[in-house]
Every structure is written in structure tokens, then in C-alpha cells.
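Follow-up to my earlier ticket, as requested here are the two runs.
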Amino acid sequence: MAYNRYSSELLEKAVDEFASLPGVGRKTALRFALHMMNQPVENVARFSGSILRMRNDLRHCSICNMISDTDVCSICGDRSRDGSVICVVESIRDVLSIENTGKYRGLYHVLGAIISPMDGIGPSDLPIQELVERASADNVKEIILALSTSPEGETTSFYLFKKLSAVDVKISAIARGIGFGDDLEYADEMTLGKSIENRQDFNPLKTN
């Protein structure tokens, strides 16, 4: 019989699952598992059901690639947003970070990744043509490049600049209040908000 540190194989497996989450150690995982064990069955069913529904039913917006419960996300569907400005970000987490600043009321375009030959990610793997098509719309006046300042982020920004140069649209980049190589997710809200407010025309000579 295999050694079981918790005297219960069921508890052990539950701890293993919680511990598989990012940033969750085994002590925290055990605390989560014991908490769930002491909850009413209906609470646990509601918790697990919401996770399962999210996994099965959550989709990506057909316009910007943000997560959504419907074909078009609530941001793209909000007519009070400024449709003349599109902010290009790497990930869904970046959208959430920018939204938390309360300083931006335009739309987004989520790439889902950045160009990284080391990871086998090239331009054809990203929704870049969709961005060019959106930028070509008559009502779009500005594209904000809000990618990380890592070498991969700068390479992606430069590639997007070249692809968008043929379109009659202003191309800007967030101010460099965020340190080299930093992700937007980890920038504090005040710094990120100021970086968006103080954005400047994109200068390809400053990229790698």
C-alpha cells in the first residue's frame, strides 16, 4: 500500500489538484481542500459547477479576441466606448489590468501571444491580419501598441508597425513608465494609467 501523508487518498488527490494551480503551494492547497470539505455539498457543487461551465462555455470575442460569454464581448458591445482607438495587448490579463486603471475607454485587440521564434510563435500564429482589417475601418483613428518591453515584445511592436504603416491611422505606444521587460499585468494601476495617458507616437528606431 502506497504511503499517504494525509491518511486519505481522496484528500491527497484534492490537495494535488489545488497545488497544480499557479502560485499555490501544498500548505495552501491543503487549507483549500479542508475548507471545501467542511462546506455544504450544495456550495461545493456550485463552486465546481461554475469552474466547469467557465471551461466549457467561455469563448473569445469574434472582434477583439477577449474572453466573452457571447460572440461579442461586453467591451466591444459597449457603445459608450471610443471606437476610434484600439489598444493592442498580448493577453487577456493585460486587458484586465488596463481596465482596472479606469483611464482608457477605447477598444482592444488581444494577440494571445507575441512573436517568439524560440517558442515557435511567428506572425502567422497571431491575429495580425484581423488587426490590419480593423485598423482600416473609416472610424479607427489610432492604434496603441501596449506590449511588453521585452525583446519579443519590441519585435512584435515593430512588426505591427510595419504592417500598419500602409493604413491611414496613427500608431502610438504607451509611455515607458514600465521597466524594461516588464509585463503590464505586474505594473501598478497608477503607473499603467499614466503610461496610457502619456502615450507617444511609436518610434521604430527605439525598438530592437
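Run two:
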Amino acid sequence: MNNSMIEIKIRKIYEDAILPKYAHDGDAAMDVYAQNITKTEKYIEYGTGLSFELPRGYVMLVFPRSSISNKDLIMKNCVGVLDAGYRGELKIRFQELGKDIYQIGERVGQIIVLPFPEIKLEEVGELNHSARGEGGFGSTGT
């Protein structure tokens, strides 16, 4: 059981914006709700009406909900990344494939906040060998 809790500041851009919620006790992700819809020729964008202040060393990942399989939508960037320094509105973009889309007030995505390490890259001429080596794209079987 994970008892760690972090505090995240959240701002409602619009008074009637819905705060993210866990659907069930123990869920990893919180659902976010559509506050507004913007359509262009290239995408449909759902604004959540929310902005966040994440602590340094944390990232918010934005995923489609499983209900996406019942809609005529595909999330444009598969997984959204909201960095700690970003203070704008959380928006989620989809490619619209048909008429069945999310409406204002519906849950349009889910968010998970995770810590991440700071990475220092070391350029080398050669990497250590491993059992897998350079095999990729199905090299371990189908």
C-alpha cells in the first residue's frame, strides 16, 4: 500500500470547472472533465478549465480513458506530458473519426502524477553488451 501523498496546487480557470476525481478508492489516475470544446480541421480539443502547479521533480501524464474505445476519437499525442513549469490550461486533443465524441461535462481523460529522476547523459563510444543486444521490433518472438 502506498501512503505517500503530495500536494498539488490547482486553479479553476472557469468557476464551473470540475476538479479531477478518482473513480474508485485506490485508482492510480484521476478523471478530468470537458469544460469546453474547440474544433478545427485537424483536431478537436477539450479544455478542462484547470491549471496546475506541480512540484519540481514531478510530471503529470495525461492518458485517454478506456471509454475512448466507445467513441470516434483518438488522442492526438497518445500520452500528454504536463511539466512542472507549465501554468496554462490542461487541454486534451483528439483526432475526430466520426460523430460520437465527448460532450461538455463528460470525463475526457485521466491524469497520473509521478516523480522522475533528473538525468545526466554520458556520451560514450560503445555500450556494454547485454543478452538482448540490438534486437527490437518483435525480435523476442510474436
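The only thing I checked on run two: The mean pLDDT is 92. Let me know what else you need.
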